[in-house]
């Protein structure tokens, strides 16, 4: 099939705004009117490999996502599920970060349509609803703690069974050390308030502990709510993504401190 015929097939099945531009032997840049959130166009190349035509983003989609997200977060939690389901649903292959779709039976138009839909859907993980973002942050926090602290030293959703058998004051994660570390994941004002109340109650019970608060984005927290939490919490980190190394060092120090 000639490039002109392929372009016409793209226009017929996708939209009139699609065009091809040759970039070498059996290689064409596919221009479409579809944009990513920052105004960049989708990066799509049509190329022939081993006598098969392939559509490829040449790694651009995941690279674009890592401007805002940690690369590891693309393969786990809610984001990882969305991306994996999208790849499977549109028969797109992830080859070390390069997204590819082999074109079967000369179905160029249908293949481009599916590939565009897949790239847009994957890019949309940056547009998760507030609830989805919150759940992703908590999943990211838990995954980070699991990767940082030995499993035998880690307890999620901990509460003090002696003073609080009903679990009214739950801690996201307790790290067992000489001085136990109570770690909170803080996505919003409500969670910060609840965590403040919990820490103050633990003080009234005269429990021995240290505490850290890890915010999704500290700048979004109400100043009065944050001020009260700051009085109760020993150590704070303004975000998870930007402070993973510092948090890991803090936890490592707590684990290495012996009686």
SSE layout and pairing:
Elements: H1 3-13, E1 19-22, E2 27-31, E3 45-49, E4 52-56, H2 60-65, H3 77-89, E5 93-95, E6 98-102, H4 108-123, H5 130-148, E7 154-158, E8 171-175, E9 181-186, H6 189-204, E10 210-215, H7 223-232, E11 235-237, H8 244-256
Parallel strand pairs: 9-10, 10-11
Antiparallel strand pairs: 1-2, 2-3, 3-4, 4-6, 5-6, 7-8, 8-9
Helix pairs in contact: 1-4, 6-7
Provide key terms for this protein:
259 residues; alpha+beta; Trna Endonuclease, Chain: A, domain 1; five-stranded mixed β-sheet; 40% helix
Protein model, in words:
The protein has 259 residues and is of the alpha+beta class. It has two domains: 125 residues, Yope Regulator, Chain: A, CATH 3.30.1460; 127 residues, Trna Endonuclease, Chain: A, domain 1, CATH 3.40.1350. Helices cover 40% and strands 20% of the residues. The protein has a six-stranded antiparallel β-sheet. A five-stranded mixed β-sheet has the order 7-8-9-10-11, with helices on both faces. β9, α6 and β10 form a beta-alpha-beta unit.
């Amino acid at each position: 099939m000639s490039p002109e015929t392929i372009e016409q097939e793209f226009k017929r099945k996708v939209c009139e705004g699609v065009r091809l531009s040759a970039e070498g032997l059996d290689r064409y840049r596919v221009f479409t009117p579809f944009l990513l959130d920052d105004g960049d166009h989708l990066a799509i190349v049509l190329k022939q490999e081993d006598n098969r035509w392939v559509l490829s983003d040449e790694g651009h989609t995941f690279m674009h996502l890592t401007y805002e997200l940690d690369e590891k977060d693309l393969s786990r939690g809610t984001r990882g599920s969305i991306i994996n389901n999208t790849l499977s649903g549109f028969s797109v292959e992830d080859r070390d970060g390069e997204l590819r779709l082999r074109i079967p039976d000369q179905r160029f138009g249908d293949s481009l349509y599916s590939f565009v839909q897949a790239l847009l859907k994957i890019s949309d993980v940056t547009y998760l609803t507030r609830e989805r973002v919150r759940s992703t942050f908590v999943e990211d926090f838990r995954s980070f703690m699991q990767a940082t602290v030995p499993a035998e030293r880690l307890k999620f959703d901990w509460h003090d069974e002696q003073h609080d058998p009903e679990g009214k004051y739950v801690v996201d994660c307790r790290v067992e050390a000489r001085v136990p570390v109570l770690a909170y994941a803080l996505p919003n004002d409500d969670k910060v308030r609840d965590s403040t109340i919990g820490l103050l109650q633990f003080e009234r019970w005269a429990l021995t502990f240290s505490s850290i608060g890890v915010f999704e984005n500290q700048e979004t927290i109400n100043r009065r709510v944050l001020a009260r939490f700051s009085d109760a919490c020993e150590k704070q980190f303004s975000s998870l993504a930007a402070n993973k190394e510092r948090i890991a060092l803090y936890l490592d120090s707590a684990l290495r401190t012996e009686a």
